[in-house]
Structure formats: C-alpha cells, structure tokens
Amino acid sequence: MIDVKDLHVSFNDNHVLKGLTTLIEEQQATVIIGRSGIGKSVFLRSLCGLITPQKGTILIDEEDITNCSRKKMLKIRNKIGMLFQEGALFDSLTVYDNVAFPLTYHKLMDRAAIDKKVRKYLELVEMQNFLEAMPSELSGGMKRKVAIARTMILEPKYLFYDEPTSGLDPYSAAIVEIMIKKLQEELNITSLIVTHDIDLTNFIGDSIALLEDGFIIEKTSKVEAFKKNSLIYEHFIKKRERIQQVNGY
Ligand SMILES: Nc1ncnc2c1ncn2[C@@H]1O[C@H](COP(=O)(O)OP(=O)(O)O)[C@@H](O)[C@H]1O
Ligand SMILES: [Mg+2]
Question: Is 4 in the pocket of ligand 1 (CB under 6 A)?
Fold first, then answer.
C-alpha cells in the first residue's frame, strides 16, 4: 500500500503540491485525473524518489521513502515500474533487445532465463511476432506496448503510468487501454495511472482521484465519479459539455 500524507513540492515560487494526502490500495487500478500542468507528473516522480518533497511522508509498504537510507530506497525502487510520459524506446535496438535491456543492464540472470522472460512479456502485450523489428517500424500504440513489456520484465509490485495514451491516435490509444486492463486483470498488480484522458479513466479506473490546486480533492469509485453531481463530473465532463454548447455544438 502507498500512503501519502501532507505532501508539499515547490519549485521556487511555484507551489505545486500543497499538502496532498491519499491512500493507494493494492491490486487495484487507481487513476489520478487532473488538467495539464497541475502536478500529476511531479506526484509520480515524487513517489519514485526522483523528486524530494519539501514536506510530508510517502509510505511505500510502510517504509517512508522521504526519510530512508540509499540502500532501502533502492530496495523500494525495485518494487516500482514506471512508464514515463515520453516512454521512449532505444531507436537503435530491436524490440527484443529493448525489452531485454533492464535485465541485461542489471546483469540479473543468464541469457536463457532472460530469453524466456522477454518472450513471456512480449507475448503478454501481444508483440511476440515483432521480436526483430526496429522501433521505427512500429505504430505509436505498438511502441507503447513494447515500453510496457520493458517495464513489466522486472516484475514490479507497483506499476505507474504517466499519460499512457497521450499523443496516440484513438485506435492506438484503445489498444494501449486494453493492454493496461489486461495486465491489471491477469497479474493483479497495483497500478497508478495519471492522465487527463476521461475515456481511459472510465475504461480502466477502479478508483478515481481528482488532483486540483495541489490536493486530491476527491477520491471515489468509478461509479460515483461519473455521477452527475460528483466533483470529477463537474471538473471534467460538464466543462467539456459546456464548452461544446457555448461553441454551438
Ligand atoms: N523539474 C522541474 N523544475 C521546475 N518546475 C517544474 C519541474 N517539474 C515540473 N515543474 C512545474 O510543476 C508544475 C506541474 O508540472 P507537471 O507535474 O509536469 O504537470 P502535469 O499535471 O501536466 O503532469 C508545472 O508548473 C511545471 O512547470
Ligand atoms: Mg505530466
């Protein structure tokens, strides 16, 4: 479980997170939704120890990562897989070598064992027929799937996704959405997804939290979140409908 309390992160005068408190339950997909520039990536980077908050605690399996030794931090980091917003593959490596990279880089196991895992995770994301392809030969959705396999291969307990569907056409986005849901159902991992994509939220979120003005201002089940008087409805769905109306659509 991830237990965040009173998290503050600022960059000079820019106070981005202002006392964010939330609990991320295990074996669920939690979606944190919020508009661009609100601090979603900053929050995820804080959870990975890439940003040091000015104040607050982040307990990951009861270990406070804001106040622990480097050795403990590395141990906790190994439980986390992160799919960055940019999610870039290495252009000069094949699909196979991209996915093998975390294991070959860390020299964690022999070649036969690595081979087995690479094939397993590429199969899981339905990319087993593209082992020797170069990233330049793949569509945006396929690249994202390979990036997901590369993250999965270290078998993290927690998987964080930063805007997994951003920049994709609707067809590729749908493929990635289905993949995330499938991984969630088959592996029962704990996923945390930050996004401003309401379709993605609706499709994969078990629980939905709204980040606004430095806080999680609402966290509910998906059913509640999509009800007409919820804050999430007010902030995302209704605003979109209003803009459409104002513009005569
Ligand atoms: N490394 C950084 N240095 C300075 N400002 C940053 C840094 N990272 C993020 N910010 C600022 O924090 C705010 C939130 O950014 P971000 O978390 O990327 O938003 P988003 O919700 O779109 O992911 C923005 O104002 C951004 O400019
Ligand atoms: Mg972001």
Answer: no
State percent of the chain over pLDDT 90. 67
Closest by Cα among 26, 34, 60 to 46? 60
DSSP letters for 74-94: HHHHTTEEEE-SS-PPPTTS-
| Ligand 1 atom with minimal separation from the 36 CA | 22
According to CATH, the superfamily of the domain at 1-79+190-249 is P-loop containing nucleotide triphosphate hydrolases (3.40.50.300)
pLDDT tens for each residue of 52-110: 999 999 999 999 999 889 899 999 999 999 998 766 899 999 999 999 999 998 777 89
CA of 74 from ligand 2 middle (Å) equals 24
Question: Is the shortest distance between the CB of 20 and ligand 1 below 6 Å?
Answer: no
Q: How far apart are CA 5 and CA 115, in angstroms?
A: 41
pLDDT in tens, 108-157: 789 999 999 999 999 989 999 999 999 999 988 899 999 999 999 988 99
Is the CB of 52 within 6 Å of ligand 1?
no
User: What is the distance in A from the centroid of ligand 1 to the CA of 134?
Assistant: 32
